[in-house]
Give the backbone structure.
Amino acid sequence: MTGPHPPTTTKTKRRMWQDKVTTGARRVGRDLWSTPSGRAAIAIIGVFVLTAVLAPAIAPHGPLERVRAADGALARLLPPSPAHPFGTTNFGRDIFDQVAWGTRRTLSVAGVAALATALIGLNVGLVAGYLGGKVDSVLMRIADTAYAIPFLPLAIVLVGILGRSDFVLVLAIALLFWRTTARVVRAQVLSLKERSFVKAAVVGGASRRRVLYVHIAPNVASLAILYGMLLVAEAVLAEAGLSFLGLAPTNAVSWGTIMFDAFNSQEMNRAWWWPLFPGLAIMLFVFAVSLLGRAHESLQRRHLEVRS
Amino acid sequence: MTLLRFSMRRVARMAATIAILVPLTFLLFRAVPGDPSAAVVGPDLDPSVAAMLRARYGVDQPVGVQFLRYLSNLARGDLGISFHYKQPVGDILLNKLFNTAVLAVPAIVLALVLGSALGAFAAATGRRRGLVDAVLRNGAFVGRATPIFWTATLALLLFSYHLNWVPSIGMTTPGRGVAVTGLGVFGSPDFWWHLALPLLIMTLYFMPEPLLTMRTSMADVLREDFIALGRAQGLSPARIVYRHAARNALLPVVTLMPALTGTIIGGQVIVETIFSWPGMGRAIVDAVNNFDYPMMQGVFLLTAVMAVAVNGVIDVLYAYLDPRVRLA
Amino acid sequence: MRSYEGRLSAALAIALALTTSACADGDQAGGGSDAATYRNVVADVAGRTPVQTIQVLTRTAAEDPRWFEQARLIVESWQRAGIPAELQAVRGAEVGRRAFMSKDFDATLLVYAPMADRIDPDNILSRFTSARAGVSGSNISGYRNAAYDALYDAQQVATNETDRVAAVKRAQKLLYEQQPVRPFAYPVVAGAYRSDRWDGIRQALGYPVFNIWNSIGATPKTGKRTLVVGTISESLTLNPVALETPSAQLLLSHIYDSLVRIGPEGELRDWAAESVKVDGARVTAKLRPGMRFSDGHPVTASDVAFSVRYLIDKKSPLFAPKLAAVRDVRATGDSVEITLTRPSQSFVATALSQVPILPEHIWRKVAHPEKFVNDNPVGSGPFVFAGRKLGAEIRFTANKRHFSAPRIDGLVMIVLGGFDAEVGGLAQGDLDMLGDVQNVAQLASVRGKSGITVLSAESIGWAGLHYNMRKEPFDDRHFRRALSLLIPVRDIIDVVFDGQGEPAGSPIAASLTKWHDASLQPFPYDLPAAMKELREAGYVFDRHGVLYYPAAREDKRLRDNDLPS
């Protein structure tokens, strides 16, 4: 359907498209930074990202090393102290180091999962919203089913079939969580396709794919980026839940696995510090992301109020 | 479209969803590599019995044959016999469902009632950007960000192990002759004493969603014209908020129920494990660990049917409350 | 505004970079200089085959963190010595399938729990006979050695105990030298109970606290006359014919009597039998008079004979294999005569101590026992079933007419979500006794607490590693010994068992003093000796630290499997 375009035109179009997307991202960023809760959120998330990047420097023991004292005794279940700020586990592992390395893993897995999920949600939403009719109702029926399938059982089965790996964690999250993004994007597309610039493109003879991805997609990009960020938080919670059921890969250390180890050791009643710190990390991070969502929400409301 | 026709269509859709879920659950579990007989064979059970066990479980036959037998049994209302418990799955599930219900239903009701009330309260004070609203709203967001296994674990450590306020395990104190069955358990102080902590944790876990939803929808309603009208007519602010606005704002909270189903199942699994509560949530985990196919199928089918049914009922209810929905 | 955007995009860029960077594991420094000094390094490895990576089969950390950590310590130690190895962590059911059913593994960690029927050495020794080396056999190492088979038979047919002990000691010495399995630790296991409420609890071999002797012997110190016992493994069925898990058998043995029982010190005690005589392949038991089932029917010799036949005919998963050697059983008067296919010194201890006496008048009518729920079990034992709530509790009342009647009025088993909760329940006073046996390290929080007594004992089982001798390089004794010498026993006991365990050597545990060969020293961790074993067989390392099989001309490997498979 799509006829060959002269290369220069393609290039310009692509640049325009990129511009639109980056403008969208910038707008999201700028808007968020303009509110106090948005600033707080970005600061907290920044600290976590920094921790993840600097893990080798600030957590010299590594997540699986068994720490021994100078006299050779295993550092078993030591409460928080200057040497071990978050205490140690029953096998002598330093929980601060585990949390720091766990940040790296948690954010990586959650980031990839959120990216994959947002891409699926974006595309489903675009196609469903723009094409409408049969395609729309089939896609939305699939979204309904995605809402009906409980996440943990699905993940258990997937891990059973494919084995435990990061890929499976990402797959389990991506398979279900695209549903919300898809619905939101679809709703946005439904209103966008009635706009004059889209109608003009259609009348101008642009192919459906072109209208969708060149004219409409950039306009929902900022929304998709925002939902992508919110998805990171959902993915962090999902990853923690899966890890808490022991479905993380062998040797993986994430916030969820640390808490799982604490619960699973059957020695937690002697070590309150063990589950405390990784849980705090999850809470703080997810809270920070939800602050972003709120900042966005209040901005939208402000726009609405200005418009009306 | 009439409400009746809408309901019929909704029921048809529910039936279709269940028709998809039945083979799906069956085939998904069989796709997991593993063998129910391997779950029991080991240092203390001679491996020579494995073949006999497979025959006894009926898993030595082709999957197709197993599926047809499962379907024909299901049609007769027979969920099969658990490999693990050696008892009819239906009986076990009924028992566990009751135990789950006495914890989950009060938790859900409390969460919805308290959540909506607090949400309405927050919205009513929110216009003045009050401290109450900030605390409630941020509390709800923190609550939503907190994994339930963490709160449950810490609460158990603190209130049970360290402070010794509440018991750590089970539904009743064993050996004290508390043998109340059925809904009579609610008349037993011992049961309430055991229920307190898990109920608190579950309620706190479910509460943020209704609270936030109610807060938003209440804020929207309060902006509408008829509220201003009421105000102009000299109705007291409290009356406006709680009699007129709240009724309208409740609608979105009702629709929240289907979305909460996943949260409830997940929370129930974790809470039952941590508090040794003998309900469905623990049955799910046990069934999966033991390759107990009849139990897995039974548990998931029951869960799915309940989820689908709740969704359907809510949809119909919503259509009844708001006729515009029927046109969609 | 601009600069904020810049910062935000930088943060996003870092986040993206992170997502693409693989998560680096804290990689152990492989092949330290220490290990390198003892290696047999050659410059030219042309024509040699490198040794493939050894997969160490273990349960996942999710299912059993202690199993997993033991395997991890072993793999780390082998890697440091230059032996390629990695963890193969799978679910318990999958360990069972690979190790016991398909025999598809390289080396597998196994823990033999202190079950009462393990007090007779036959339980362990039979696991190395060639007759059981097949795919569905319990000889998971695949050891097929004629000399060993002869020793195993000798201890079975020995006519007196001295001869049997001698044969058992020679058999365990052979296993020690040839290493089809490497038992590395005898853990110290423990139970605990509320000594502020109960007297009369004595430490026993096997399960130190919760066992039939303490259920009978427990004497109330307070007004509380029902013993409340916690457990994490629910007894799923009360049907002895369908029963698959031995932990449930412990509970059933409260309801059903057996002809003999294994006493608290591991000795055989006559129980429902007044006397038991073993004469070659013939076992004769004379029934104790006056016993009754809980429904009032008398217990007869014909009930006993029926039970044995029924459990075999109906293929009881737990009991039929124990009765496999039975050729014939008949009741005459108050005696039961069991004829075996061949003489067996262990039959009474491993089979008759476990097999329940079922009431014939009830089970005769049950054609399909696997579908029979048995929700109201009738037995003659010291306790009578009183009711259960699935997933919550099982209740028993004391059988005050029993010849060894309990001193308590009743017993309740409470099902718990985890051992943590069980220990917490004991500390809180919700429970009177722990029904599960665990490493004593896990009882640290209640040790020394007033009102609670912890009883611990070295296990009659062990934690060890089975090699799959059906495969290269595990068919070679030198290689197995090298691997065994590289198991960091002290570290395992220190880290995993919190110091509560003893290094092991023989597969017959040291606590079985009658059978254990004390001259077999615990196998040490010894890097130079391990490298010497490899050198002797002809294995070499190249300059990069890769391990190769011996070249054909210098192949000195020792194959201990001398019987055809």
